[in-house]
Specification:
Number of helices: 7
Largest sheet: 5 strands, antiparallel
Distance between the termini: 22 Å
Strand order of the largest sheet: 6-5-4-3-7
CATH class of the largest domain: Mainly Alpha
Order of helices and strands: HHHEEHHHHEEEEE
Number of domains: 3
Structural class: alpha+beta
Number of strands: 7
CATH architecture of the largest domain: Orthogonal Bundle
Shape: extended
Radius of gyration: 24 Å
Strand content: 15-25%
Helix content: 25-40%
Length: 266
């Protein structure tokens, strides 16, 4: 699977290569399609990194012209793959291995399990990143396993209301505020419909029966506050870095019958 990190730290969507072929011994013939060759180019550059590989060497390996290699490299660069080129007699192409991921192995059942979980999390924080993660999983699978995963997914069905209430997505600005610990200025509508502007030091997200909430230290009120994300009308990141605060430090009032459960990755 190939991913590329932008300068803002985000990850570009994966390149959906249809077939994952073994690369390492031998060369590609002209009958191999361009999708497979693009994948093979990246994996070969990854294997050679940090050594630079010339267009002529790549052309010989993949049995295409140097001009074809240059076009392929240009297409990959435009798509966001971190490939760098040096001109001159000793120049060539190299890949930044720290900003890409090698192919990963997922079983069809694992891919479907992730898809089921994601389908139940509409409107949750980092939902866009979750969908990208699923695409990465699928693109990292072999053609056979990918087909098996889609066949298994076709046997999963959900029963939803004919006119479901689609939850509002958590603003991407809030996601970035929590991830980067940046103070965010929000326009918030309270229960009475009054709009106030507040600078908030982000701490966490939490889910309740009414949807998702944004927790932080409200500089306007001088205390920890809980904001319903669907009531946030505007959000702008500020340059201030928020001090570290734990969830427990906010001392938000919770009903006695509510237990806070942390998210665990394993």
């Amino acid at each position: 699977m190939i991913t590329a990190e932008r300068t803002d730290g985000s990850i570009t969507p994966p390149y959906l290569f249809t077939t994952l072929l073994a690369v390492g011994v031998g060369s590609y013939r002209r009958t191999v399609n361009r999708t497979d060759r693009l994948y093979a180019l990246v994996e070969h550059l990854r294997a050679c990194a940090p050594r630079r590989v010339s267009a002529r060497e790549l052309a010989t390996r993949f049995e295409v012209s140097a001009r074809t290699v240059e076009r392929d490299i240009s297409a990959l660069q435009q798509a966001g793959v971190p490939i760098y080129a040096d001109v001159g007699r000793t120049g060539g192409y190299t890949l930044d291995k720290s900003r890409t991921l090698p192919p990963l192995n997922f079983t069809p059942a694992e891919a479907v399990a992730v898809a089921i979980t994601l389908s139940q999390g509409e409107g949750s924080p980092y939902g866009r990143a979750a969908r990208t993660a699923l695409h990465k999983i699928l693109s990292a699978m072999s053609a056979v396993d990918g087909a098996a995963a889609r066949e298994l997914a076709d046997r999963i069905r959900f029963l939803d209301p004919a006119e479901p209430d689609v939850p509002a997505s958590v603003p991407a600005v809030l996601e970035e505020a929590v991830a980067a610990r940046r103070v965010v200025r929000i326009g918030y509508v309270d229960r009475a419909g009054a709009i106030t502007e507040r600078d908030v030091e982000p701490v966490a997200f939490t889910a309740g029966s009414n949807g998702w909430y944004f927790l932080g230290w409200c500089r306007l009120r001088g205390e920890g506050r809980v904001f319903r994300t669907d009531r946030i009308r505007s959000a702008v990141l500020l340059d201030d870095t928020a001090p570290h605060r734990s969830f427990e430090e906010l001392k938000t009032d919770l009903p006695d019958d509510i237990v806070v459960r942390a998210l665990h990755l394993v």
